[in-house]
Amino acid sequence: MVEGTEIRKGDVMVMVGTRKGAFLLSGDGSRDRWRISGPHCADGDVFHMTYDPRNGALLAAVNNVFWGSQVQIGTDLGATWTASEGNPKISDGSELALGRIWHIEPGRANEPGVLYLGAEPASLFRSHDWGANWEQFSSLTRHPSRDRWEEGNGGLCLHSIVLDRSSKQRMWVGISAAGTFRTDDGGET
User: Fold this and answer.
1) CA 130, CA 33: separation in Å to the nearest integer?
2) Which of 8, 66, 115, 169 has the highest CB neighbour number within 10 Å of its CB?
3) Number of domains in the chain
């Protein structure tokens, strides 16, 4: 365990999520020597990490068997972490309950404060305020083919989100083992 390794501007950074927290590896442009810091978010399994170029924050999808799932945000390159103010909830009247968070994706450059989140059971959420409040994409939760979706080895999870950077209306999501879904109308369908 190494703590407090400084990550400097211009470093190459690799973010690694594990069942024992997150680790940050950094090195200069030559990549000959690496520094490691962590574990960060050590109170849970870290399924996904990403860097938000809009504000320089690190985002982590953290899942704890006792405390539940949450998004952790590090605004100082991992020196400190705070939980987002709100947690997503499936609120479309179905009997589904949110399980683990699998993916966190920063919004586009022209979407300040927007975060997207993929979770189990195969659900997609968006926040407009850096995670204080979340809205569910019911069009996906109530998709007409949902009753035919089968769980993959990790469960029925939405594990990937790809935003079309040229269109605020288009994105793709990957659901294990249901396939890839695209929206061209901002999630209405």
Assistant:
1) 34
2) 115
3) 1
Q: Which two three-digit tokens encode residue 126?
A: 């968006």
Q: Is residue 169 part of a domain?
A: yes
**What one-character-per-residue DSSP string does 10-60 give?**
T-EEEEEEETTEEEEEEE-TT-SSEEEEEEESTTSEEEEEEEETTTTEEEE
67: in domain: no
pLDDT in tens, the chain (189 residues): 455 556 677 788 899 999 999 999 988 878 888 889 899 999 899 999 999 999 999 999 999 988 899 999 998 888 889 999 888 988 877 788 899 999 999 999 999 999 999 999 999 999 999 999 999 999 999 999 999 998 888 889 999 999 999 999 999 999 998 999 999 999 999
**Residue 11 token pair:** 């470093």
**Whole domain around residue 101: which residue ranges?**
84-183
User: Is residue 106 assigned to a domain?
Assistant: yes
Q: Is residue 91 part of a domain?
A: yes
Which residues of the chain form beta strands (DSSP E)?
A: 12-18, 21-27, 34-40, 45-52, 57-64, 68-74, 82-83, 101-106, 115-119, 123-127, 135-136, 157-163, 171-176, 179-183
